[in-house]
Amino acid sequence: MNLQEHFDATIERDQRIEPRDWMPEGYRKTMIRQVAQHAHSEIIGMQPEGDWITRAPSLRRKAILLAKVQDEAGHGLYLYSAAETLGADRTDLTERLIEGRQKYSSIFNYPTLTFADVGVIGWLVDGAAICNQVPLCRSSYGPYARAMIRICKEESFHQRQGYELLMTMMSGTQEQRDMVQDATNRWWWPSLMMFGPPDAESTNTAQSMAWKIKRHTNDELRQRFVDMSVPQAEKLGVTLPDPDLRWNPERGHYDFGQIDWDHFKEVVSGNGPCNKIRIERRRKAHEDGQWVRDAAAAYAAKHKEAVA
Amino acid sequence: MNLQEHFDATIERDQRIEPRDWMPEGYRKTMIRQVAQHAHSEIIGMQPEGDWITRAPSLRRKAILLAKVQDEAGHGLYLYSAAETLGADRTDLTERLIEGRQKYSSIFNYPTLTFADVGVIGWLVDGAAICNQVPLCRSSYGPYARAMIRICKEESFHQRQGYELLMTMMSGTQEQRDMVQDATNRWWWPSLMMFGPPDAESTNTAQSMAWKIKRHTNDELRQRFVDMSVPQAEKLGVTLPDPDLRWNPERGHYDFGQIDWDHFKEVVSGNGPCNKIRIERRRKAHEDGQWVRDAAAAYAAKHKEAVA
Amino acid sequence: AAELARSCLWLGDDALIMSHRLQEWVAAAPELEDEVALANIGLDLLGQARLLLARAAKADPALVPAVNQSDEDALAFFRAAEDFHNVRLVELAGGDFAFSMARLLVFSTWRLALFQRLVDSPDQVLTAIAAKGVKELTYHRDYAARWVVRLGDGTDLSHERMQAGLDEVWPYVDELFDGENEDDKALREEFDAVMAQVITAGALKQPYLRPVPTAGRHTEHLEPLLAEMQSVARAHPDATW
Amino acid sequence: AAELARSCLWLGDDALIMSHRLQEWVAAAPELEDEVALANIGLDLLGQARLLLARAAKADPALVPAVNQSDEDALAFFRAAEDFHNVRLVELAGGDFAFSMARLLVFSTWRLALFQRLVDSPDQVLTAIAAKGVKELTYHRDYAARWVVRLGDGTDLSHERMQAGLDEVWPYVDELFDGENEDDKALREEFDAVMAQVITAGALKQPYLRPVPTAGRHTEHLEPLLAEMQSVARAHPDATW
Q: Which Pfam families does its entry note (chains A, B) (predicted)?
């Protein structure tokens, strides 16, 4: 059995590819891109919520939010490590991010305008992320699958916290309820876009499904998310901003309105409300930290010499 | 009559020395230092109050404060121009300031902690400045004397506005009254120090009096300020923080307590509460603006060439 | 009256927030002359904001939050971000001197063209505000234009920064011109003509950047601005100043 | 009880404000490992603040502003700057990573020594807070010390910045040790010994800078910090979150 056959058989048997295993270059490249984009998303995703830590209106919510953003940094760390098992380099990946050569989830290019956004991001954005990510816990690439197991566990915790914040706000003042509804209006459609373009237009899906690094199509996952979210919205007492949203007993699913894919493409291609600000901030942190990382490297080198 | 005699005679007759007149080097140097320090004080003095413009609690007060700080920038401008008539260079003077080689009034090394500080600075700090500056309208150096006439007019306007803010606050809530009293407690003694060390220890006074660039001693001016401020404090309803302050019918003046000159020397020598922050901020503005000034110079040069 | 109130409120909010961003240059400008000029422009706009907010409140008292403050202060200090109606252009935070001059040029060119039309408003108060404003805005525009030209045609570094500043501002231009009728088109043409002239004089390139899509009425920059601006007023809601 | 309340309030305020300054590093730290560590330290201190403020409120309910909020939130979000009792060290704004590590080293070394004594407090709640805090602060101190050493003995640039950071922090050290009795002196000695060790390991110079004189209880940095921290809470005084 040659290397390719061995690889194919491993995939076929639903076993995992590990860092030392031979793998086709296409698989390696695709995995690096997938894992890096996921890592970038965690890191960029710290910004829209992180901005509210210093302004959180209660100490308990401040602690919850700070812990959540810390988890996101932690997720970024595992994921960059998983990418490194494929031969990638963290600094190189960061540079690809800030030079716009690698993407991150477009959802983080929307602004957070009130504290209700923190709750809605937990509910809808983390909810959509979980729908996307649960199947990835069975990704054929071992380190990524294991990272996803841990990440999914923490994400569902974040989702519950977000939803709980919204429940509290909905039982508060009228202003708070208005904030929740407004945030829901702004985040609903972008959340649906998190599952990517419709299957008919998705180019990577077939190969990724064959390699078992993707296990459901975009439209399947999107439908699952809608079906899950509608009863949650009802329980919360907010209206989802889609007049076409209704239960379809024949399909056994909720029908929903047309997604504005032109808008989606605009945001993905760099022209969303906050693309520039997010990347600039990441670039600034990276550049401002250069002298610190240089110092750490210099110290480590000196120390090694001294020991040797 | 030689140059020196001509100069002496001009001074003697209470006439003004003008830029084209011959003057002794000592006079020139002393005047440059005096005018530059005054200019620096106006510019550094923009910071402690300027910080409250964006936080001013009413639009009217915001406008008044912004106009006042603008006036200070304007005063800085006239004064640097007056220094330039003596052969000094504005950029060079700015560099002396940010390198700590020239001083500015130590009063601006104290923090502004509440909006009441804006009022108390107007009342006490501008009040003390006016006591110091009114005699300078008769300075023997013409451009400085003329600048001082304009500046004093504007300063008394500022002083009235500051006092009026305090009157309004004193008729407001208890919290506002507490803020005014607290600010008065913090600014009273530093204001008394604005007149400089006691006459017995003041080194420059004699020569400056002879040259008529100074017309009253530090202690005379300080007494005038105290006599003026006590009834104002009574009218306002605040207590000046000096248990020894009382009317002395024999002297026909208010007696007041011992000034902590050790503290004064600390602040003058760079170790006040805000010395570092003030100079750093000025340095940063100067350095951040370098590329803009360079561009203006380059544009002017090109334009001149094009015309020629 | 509701229509008048709405116009005054929108114009007032633009001036108030733009003035705040200019106030941030205090003790930070490149030259003393610019300290004076920027404070002056900030003061003019603050003055416009006060008159416009007061007019809006008078035309539609329902707009004014129920607090124990004057109309202008109630509107400035006791509204939440979502109740402000300024354009996003004036909210944008940070940015260097080149960005600020590009924004001021765009803002004052647009606003001057608007005010020139408001001079014929049926409301006499608004007419008077506009007439005064036209003079002020002409000066603001000329100040900004002079710097855009000098920076554009100054050093290599300043040219690069000026172009970057212009590019940063440009995606927020379309939002200023949302009308569809003949006069709205004429307004845009006037604006484009002034911009083209300044851009050419500054040896700069006309940006062709697409507008930034809206997502909610504001950017992330407004809430922190208001937190700062309103902090003292809100800490003492019963105080008079 | 008043004495206990006072101690808890002071220690709680220190932790709350220091935590805020660490929160400002979110999405701005030099490495992801530091993002995680700084958030972690910020969380520990926030946790200490919550327990201490609650304890202070219980020991002396008169401290708590009369608003419809929990004790900890009433104290954190509805007090004015002049009612906060934190040391000035934790207020200082801006500053680069070297400054922040110097401050964290000073703060956690001092606080660890304090907490080691509080473990024997007669109040059982405070004892428990202190026991937990000792573990946390030991980690904070070690984290900061490692960076001070690495930056001090790293590159020429990092050495220069680390020394500057230390020099910037030093004038605020004396204020931490205002007691006169034997134990206060022992505390200072402990502190000095730790600092000397780290400073030597980092090839740095012991600063001999004079303390910054006080002028009022706080620096100019606290008011803007609170304006930001309290903005949402104060905009919605009747809300629950």
A: PaaA_PaaC
| pLDDT of B306 | 64
Q: Which amino acid is at C100?
A: S
D179 and chain B: CB distance < 8 Å anywhere? Answer: no
Distance in angstroms (rounded) separating the CA atoms of residues D142 and D161: 20
Contacts of D104 (CB under 8 A, 6+ apart): D22, D41, D140, D143, D144
Q: Which residue of B has its CA nearest to D79?
A: B175
| DSSP assignment letter at D88 | G
Q: What is the mean pLDDT of chain A?
A: 94
Residue with structure tokens 């002056």? C40
Whether C215 has a pLDDT exceeding 80, the answer reads no
- Contact state of D220 with B263 under an 8 Å Cβ cutoff: no
* Identity of the amino acid at D230: Q
Asked if B176 is an interface residue toward chain C (Cβ–Cβ < 8 A), one would say yes
Q: Does D29 touch chain A (CB under 8 A)?
A: yes
Out of D224, D232, D234, the one facing C235 most closely (by C-beta) is D234
Separation of alpha carbons C76 and C64, rounded Å: 10
Stretch among A56-60, A118-122, A204-208, C178-182 having the lowest mean pLDDT: A204-208
Give the angle subtended at the CA of B41 by the CAs of B37 and B45, to the nearest 5°.
170
pLDDT of residue A306: 64
The answer to whether B57 contacts C233, with C-beta atoms less than 8 Å apart, is: yes
Mean pLDDT over residues D196-225, rounded? 91
pLDDT digits (tens, 9 = 90+) for B210-221: 787 777 889 999
ipTM of predicted complex: 0.92
- Are B47 and C32 in contact (CB < 8 Å)? no
Q: Among A32-41, A150-159, A196-205, A239-248, which is the least confidently predicted range? A: A196-205
- Contact state of D46 with A62 under an 8 Å Cβ cutoff: yes
| Alpha-carbon distance D4 to nearest alpha carbon in chain A (angstroms) | 22
Please name the residue ranges forming H helices in chain C: 2-23, 32-59, 71-77, 97-118, 124-152, 156-169, 182-201, 222-235
- Restricting to D residues 215-234, those with a Cβ less than 8 Å away from any Cβ of C are 223-224, 226-228, 230-232, 234
Q: How far apart are CA A143 and CA A160, in angstroms?
A: 26
- Residues A82-91 have pLDDT tens digits of 999 999 999 9
Q: Can you tell me the distance from the alpha carbon of A13 to that of B103, in angstroms, rounded to the nearest whole number?
A: 80
